[in-house]
Specification:
Blueprint lengths: L5 H15 L4 E5 L15 E5 L2 E7 L5 H17 L5 E6 L4 H10 L2 E4 L4 E4 L4 E4 L21 H8 L8 H8 L3 H13 L4 E2 L5 E2 L3 H11 L6 E7 L4 H14 L4 E4 H9 L7 E5 L5 H7 L1 E3 L6 E5 L10 E3 L2 E3 L2 H7 L7 H12 L8
Helix pairs in contact: 2-3, 4-5, 5-6, 9-11, 9-12, 11-12
């Protein structure tokens, strides 16, 4: 279903609020020029809940980059408003990343699918679990598709630098036409911009990473899960790395194993490796691999794009993917993967916004 326009959003929000607080709510959509002076409006709605007023900003997309821009708009609106107005963000459907960003920024939100987290002096409304009523048909242009994501990986590996588009294409191994299309899409989402010389830069690397993470799906790679007899996982990881090296198989550790190499974050049970190709039966026998997802302690992954191998490093004689890729891949892992991802982000991906 197509995302509603502002008029329908106004009606839906009012209906939801009246249901939640027994009719004591009124939503008013502002015109493009809302002041007596004819100045452009700062926000989209005013929401009256009993004696409290909220200023509402509506966005027709709930992706993290859109959410972040809307939050900045709400903050600007608050600076220019009077009294105790409170911010409210409205989207068709709020995803996990967006909800977390709103929580960090102390922004209340409602989605038109019926979910909400709204906190005022008089009300605390929290609704979750309602399905997305506005899923898009088809596949929208995705700057984080497997090959396209090489560009974001290249930029995030060098977050404080600026590059000509031609240089990005050459270094990321992507054609110039393709690079132009992906950069344009990232610019539309305000995830990259250009300096006065036309060089591409990332103003907020953390936002670019969050936007990629939101779209990333580890299960889209070809994953073989199996078991190799071993008393402890670190020794197993190193033994497998030596076997792949000897067999001439390009590899790189990722997931919990790579997180351990990078941060020593907790012991792990599953050793995950990207491989450039599927293993021959002889090599499987040599390492003692038994294919069986039940109780697997080894995940061997043939990636959907070779870009995962770019920017890799070696620690303790084991090659591993870049911390950005480790962080993304942990999204698809069990055990203490969420904590491991937080550790990676804190130690390696703790960027600041650029001033220029």
């Amino acid at each position: 279903m197509k995302a509603p326009d502002e008029a329908e959003a106004e009606s839906r929000v009012e209906r939801l609020l009246q249901e939640w607080i027994e009719g004591r709510a009124r939503v008013e959509r502002l015109e493009e020029e809302n002041s007596q002076m004819g100045e452009p409006r700062i926000w989209d709605f005013t929401v009256q809940l009993r004696d409290e007023t909220l200023i509402g900003e509506y966005r027709r997309s709930g992706d993290i980059s859109t959410i972040s821009r809307a939050i900045e708009q709400l903050k600007e609106g608050l600076r220019q408003s009077s009294g105790d107005d409170r911010p409210l963000l409205i989207v068709p459907f709020m995803g996990e990343k967006g909800a977390r960003r709103c929580q960090e920024e102390k922004i209340s939100w409602i989605d038109l699918s019926g979910n909400a987290h709204l906190h005022t002096k008089s009300f605390l409304i929290h609704v979750e679990g309602k399905p997305n009523q506005f899923k898009q048909k088809g596949r929208p242009a995705n700057p984080f598709a497997p090959k396209s994501s090489r560009i974001s990986r290249f930029l995030l590996a060098r977050p404080n630098q600026r590059f000509r588009q031609k240089e990005i294409a050459n270094q990321a191994g992507v054609g110039r036409g393709w690079t132009s299309k992906v950069i344009r899409r990232l610019e539309e989402k305000k995830l990259v911009n250009r300096d006065e010389d036309g060089r591409v830069k990332v103003p907020d690397p953390s936002l670019l990473l969050d936007a990629w993470h939101e779209k990333y799906d580890f299960s889209k790679h070809r994953i073989m899960k199996g078991t190799v007899a071993s008393k402890e996982s670190v020794g197993l990881m190193k033994r497998l790395a030596r076997a792949f090296e000897s067999a001439g198989v390009e590899y790189a550790a990722t997931g919990l194993a790579a997180a351990w190499l990078l941060t020593r974050f907790a012991r792990f049970r599953i050793a995950t490796f990207y491989l450039s190709r599927q293993l021959e039966e002889g090599l499987k026998r040599k390492i003692g691999l038994r294919e069986d997802p039940k109780g697997a302690n080894v995940w061997l992954v043939v990636p959907n794009d070779e870009g995962v191998f770019y920017e890799n490093s070696t620690r303790e004689d084991v090659r591993h993917v870049h911390p950005v890729q480790v962080y993304l891949d942990l999204k698809g892992h069990p055990e203490r993967s969420e904590e491991a991802a937080s550790s990676i982000k804190k130690e390696y991906l703790n960027w600041r916004k650029s001033d220029g």
